Amino acid sequence: MMSRFACYPSLVDRNVLITGGASGIGAAFVEQFSRQGARVAFLDVDERAAETLVERLADARHVPIYLYCDLTDLDALRAAIASARAQIGAIAVLINNAANDGRHALADIDESAFEHNLAVNLRHQIFATQAVIPDMRRLGGGSIICLGSTGWMRKGAGYPLYAAAKAAVRGFVNGMARELGQQRIRINSLVPGWVITERQARLWLDDAGREEIARSQCLPGFLKPDELARAALFLAADDSRMCTGQDYIVDGGWI
Length: 255
Prior knowledge:
By secondary structure, the chain is of the alpha/beta class. The chain has a single domain, classed as Rossmann fold. 45% of the residues lie in helices and 15% in strands. It has a seven-stranded parallel β-sheet with strand order 3-2-1-4-5-6-7, with helices on both faces. The chain is globular and about 45 Å long. The model has no long low-confidence stretch (mean pLDDT 96).
């Protein structure tokens, strides 16, 4: 069956900031929003992947702007957001995507590892949100999309700090929805299942994983980054203007 996907007129010329946008799910966000005609700025530390992505989108209505940024450095994060604002205008949509689900054991965690993991997977979401709220107030509203994970919901093993950070994303979204909603700023969590990016396929998708996907998902096939990006388009567009404080799970029916 041929797929036919939605176009969102409200996203044309809308200013979108995406963290961790050079590869994987983030690159799908950058591409899908750019193809909708949005003005996109994205942050990442992977310069080569970012440059390749920008080249691939050279024919977009607005070629996306790449800004190098180590999100664990809050001063650098604030500076990058200010630079994005100067280049594309006030931020109307923020996608807090950047994360790393590297495997680790509880016994191996020390204070430094704890601080670093939360900086990578949680802290930047809070401070990036803080930085763009004045823009959204001036614009009369906006949309913030925080990437969660079903990993902690289905009690996945091998990443306790990642699981804790992603569970906290849900709390942050719920804790901000009412306050921001009074200013017509929507905040939702977009919650992926096991998305088979190049990295996931290389590091962790083995025969046992394929069997688990086939057994656990209601829908057959691998979940791909574009599925998440298309859900993000809806959450950023005016079509979702009365949606806030929710978890939008895209996992093939696993949970």
